[in-house]
Amino acid sequence: MKKLLQRLTGKEASAEGGPGAKLPFLSDKETLILRMLVAQGEMYGLQLVESSNGELKRGTVYVTLDRMEDKGYIESRRAPTEPGDGPAKRMYRATGLGERALAAREAFAMSLAVEFGR
User: Domains, the chain, ranges and CATH?
Assistant: First the structure.
């Protein structure tokens, strides 16, 4: 368990890495967002909605992005704008933690598929 936590967080396992430690959790929407950001690079919220084939909605994408930023899976910056272009767009990108959490979730899903696909 300590080795898995270290791999996911990139930090030395501590006393908190015991049986009661919380592993990073990704919802289906968070997984989708991370997949898109890892594959396509930096994107803004409405690009994510448009690229999701209807899986993400305008009304919830920003709440999900804020939650993911709080968890450390993504980070954002304001894109520079020209005068008259309207409000600045917030650009999002996956962090190292987000990439590792996504890789761990996909490896776990693959192991379940192999185990139960027999």
Answer: 26-116 (1.10.10.10)
